[in-house]
Amino acid sequence: KSGFVAIVGRPNVGKSTLLNRIIGQKIAIMSDKAQTTRNKIQGVYTTPEAQIIFIDTPGIHKPKHRLGDYMVEMAYSALREVDSIIFMVSADQKRGRGDDFILERLSKQDVPVYLVINKIDTIHPDELLAIIDDYRQVMDFKEIIPISATEGNNVEHLLDVLVDQM
Ligand code: GDP
Ligand code: MG
User: Which residues have CB less than 5 Å away from ligand 2 (the ion)?
Assistant: First the structure.
């Protein structure tokens, strides 16, 4: 089994932290120039049964400034090359316009989109339920997976879900 997974989300939600936890040292040996057609490979997670290639989609994190409509469309069409998309948010930040812009585009993608709510170590379980409720109203995610990238909570489950999907 193998597949491409894009991780998208606002700056500082914990994308790099999650990748470092999943891939560890291997990230350091990836070439900066490693590319699929339009996406940059950030790391490869390999087990005896599966391989997940995590990629970054340049342009998708900064929709508001400077990018023309054409550039934005290019960034989003690059997502058609992936098998799944992780949309990552931070449990300690409210859903904002930046999130909504990305979500509106993601809802038009054909591939499964997983909502990963990171930094659950910073909040009370009741708050987590409210966040899940809030995002459920904006989009029909394939699955909602709360994690803590720094503590490692639920990261194995996330990997299992991604592999099962392939
Ligand atoms: P990125 O911009 O999305 O790649 O975010 P980073 O991975 O650089 O993380 C931004 C900050 O959030 C760093 O200071 C991380 O240590 C912190 N962070 C990431 N994941 C977690 C988490 O699960 N819990 C907490 N408390 N902090 C986190
Ligand atoms: Mg980063």
Answer: 15-16
Pairing of strands 143-146, 113-118: parallel
Tokens 């009370």 -> residue: 124
92 lines ligand 1 (CB under 6 A): no
Confidence check on the interface: ipTM exceeds 0.85, yes or no:
yes
Taking the model in full, what pTM does it have? 0.90
Residues making up the chain, counted from first to last: 166
Q: What is the pLDDT along the chain (166 residues), one digit of tens a residue?
A: 999 999 998 888 999 899 999 987 545 444 444 455 556 778 889 988 999 999 877 667 655 666 667 777 777 877 888 999 999 999 999 999 888 888 988 988 899 999 999 999 999 999 999 999 999 999 999 999 999 999 999 999 999 999 998 8
